[in-house]
Amino acid sequence: EDKVVQSPLSLVVHEGDTVTLNCSYEVTNFRSLLWYKQEKKAPTFLFMLTSSGIEKKSGRLSSILDKKELFSILNITATQTGDSAVYLCAPAGGTSYGKLTFGQGTILTVHP
Amino acid sequence: SAVISQKPSRDICQRGTSLTIQCQVDSQVTMMFWYRQQPGQSLTLIATANQGSEATYESGFVIDKFPISRPNLTFSTLTVSNMSPEDSSIYLCSVELGRSTQNIQYFGAGTRLSVL
């Protein structure tokens, strides 16, 4: 059975802090790993990672994948209150298409 | 990305009734997905809906409870049948746009369902 574990489950920080969110996975026929941000209902896409060791960056967010150790991290630098959300990790696996298995998420709260 | 419209955005229903949720995309897509997110939980895939074929359901979900239609490449519906309070969840549709963005799923705004 596919398994995704995210840590920490929740995190409270102050604006300006840097946070690191972790995701470990066991997925059959691994294809890629995706990160999403969920603020209200709809998850919004952040990154897709397919290769080990290649950092993807978007502004203050960055992410990297280790396919040997089966984990990924999402870093957020200089956090802002607008970063408060649930961050979801979802490896894509399967044979005919990339079925996503979502982790339980990390609840990030950024205080002013 | 794509514009994905999901209706209704929320509803309150009586137990024993059924609700049909609609998902409309502004471009033709092959793969559409339906998820459930129970309170405080992560997203769980209900089924995959491909145009022209029967939906593929995940373990724990059955067609009688969650019938799905996919009449064309831009539209799908999910019905939650014979509802009970345990069906109170957010239901989300998502789409995969194509080869250049393979594996990336884009989500509709979701339907928040409360069953009394």
Could you walk me through the main structural features you see in this protein, from its secondary elements to its overall organization?
The complex is a heterodimer of chains A (112) and B (116). By secondary structure, chain A is mainly beta. Chain A is built from no helices and 11 strands. In chain A, the strands form 2 sheets. In chain A, strands 2, 4, 5, 9, 10 and 11 form a 6-stranded mixed β-sheet that branches. In chain A, strand 9 and strand 10 form a beta hairpin. Chain B is an all-beta fold. Chain B has no helices and 11 strands. In chain B, the strands form 2 sheets. In chain B, strands 2, 4, 5, 6, 9, 10 and 11 form a 7-stranded mixed β-sheet that branches. A 4-stranded antiparallel β-sheet of chain B has the order 1-3-8-7, with no helix packed on it. Chain B is globular and about 45 Å long. The N and C termini of chain B lie far apart (36 Å). The interface between A and B is medium-sized, with 22 and 22 residues.
Topology (elements, then pairings):
The complex is a heterodimer of chains A (112) and B (116).
Chain A: E1 3-7, E2 10-14, E3 19-26, E4 32-38, E5 43-49, E6 56-58, E7 61-66, E8 71-76, E9 85-93, E10 99-100, E11 106-111
Parallel strand pairs in A: 2-11
Antiparallel strand pairs in A: 1-3, 3-8, 4-5, 4-9, 6-7, 7-8, 9-10, 9-11
Chain B: E1 4-7, E2 10-13, E3 19-25, E4 31-37, E5 44-50, E6 56-57, E7 68-72, E8 75-80, E9 89-96, E10 105-107, E11 111-115
Parallel strand pairs in B: 2-11
Antiparallel strand pairs in B: 1-3, 3-8, 4-5, 4-9, 5-6, 7-8, 9-10, 9-11
